[in-house]
Amino acid sequence: MTLAALATALGCHLEGDGAVSIRGVATLDQAGPGDLTFLTNPRYAHLLAATRASAAIVGSDVTEAPCALLRCDEPYVALARALTLLMPPDRPAAGVHPTAIVAADAEVNATASIGPYAVVDARARIGARVVLGPHVVVGAGTTIGEDSWLHAHVTVREGCRLGARCVVQNGAVIGSDGFGFATSRDGVHVKIPQRGPVVLEDDVEIGAQTTIDRPAVGETRICAGTKIDNLVQIAHGVVVGRGSLLAAQVGIAGSTRLGAYVTLGGQVGVAGHITLGDRVKAVGQTGITSSLEADAFVSGYPAIDNREWRKSSVLFRRLPELRERMNALEQRLRALERPDPEDREPQSRRRT
Q: For the chain, which ranges sit under pLDDT 70?
C-alpha cells in the first residue's frame, strides 16, 4: 500500500512522499525501510530521531523527523487501524471442515468457516463470514452474528445470542450455568435450573478463558462495544453497559448492573445486586461492595474515592513509625499525669 493511500484510509495528514510503499508496522527502534512506525507515548520521543522507518504516525506535537509523517489527533487509534489494514489475520477459507459436526437443521451461511472438530448443534444459526475455530462448540438454538470470530475451544451454550463482529478468544465459555442453589433446612443445596440466555451485542470482544454465566430467568447481557480481558468471571443476570472495559481477573457477582463506559482494572471484585453508574472507574484490586454514582473513581477495599485512597495509602506505609510515636507520647502523658510523691505524704509529716 502506498503511503498516500494509507493516509487517506486513516484520515491522516501526509507530510512527505506519498508514493513510498509501506509493507508493515514496526517499533521506532526496529523499523526499517518500507515500515510504518508510530509515536504514541512521549517517553519514546527520543527514538524518533534515529528511526529508519519510511513513515511514522505522530500527533501534532512532533515538529520534525527523519521520515515521512502521518499526522493526526489520535495516533493510537490510527495505529490500531493501520495494523488492521497492513497486518490482517489469516482468515480460513469458507466451508465446513470434514471433521466438523453440523446438525441437519442448523443454518450455516455459505460464507462461514467451520473449523476442524467444531460442533454446531440443532437449530443453531451461523451468520455470514463467521469463523468457528477448531473444537468450537455452538449449542442448540444459538445464534452467531455476521463477521464474528470464535477461536479454538470456545463454547457457546444453548440459546445464547452473539451479535455482529464479536470476537471470542480461546477457551472462553459463554452461557455456563449460573451459581444458583437453594439451601434447604437440612443443609442440602438444591440446584436452581439456569435457563436464561447470555446475549453479546455487536462488536463485543471476550478474552481467553473468560466465563459468562446464564441466569435462571431473564438474561445476562454484554452491551455493544464492550471489551473484556482474559480470565474474567461474569455471574448470572449481570448487565455490562456499552463500551465498557474489564481487565484480567475481574469478577462480577450476580444481578449487578454496570453503566456505559465503565472501566475496571485487573482483579477488581464487584459485589452482587448493586449498580455502577456510567463511566465509573476502579483501579486494580479494588473491592466494590456498594452502588456507585456516575463518574466515580475508586480504589481499595472497601472502595473509596481514589484521591482519599491515595492519601490513606501514604499513611498506611507510615503506621509502624506512627505507632512508635504514639506509644512514646502516651508514656510521656502518663508521666505528666502521675501525682508528685510529696503530694501523697501526710500533711503533719510534711510540717516536721
A: 340-352
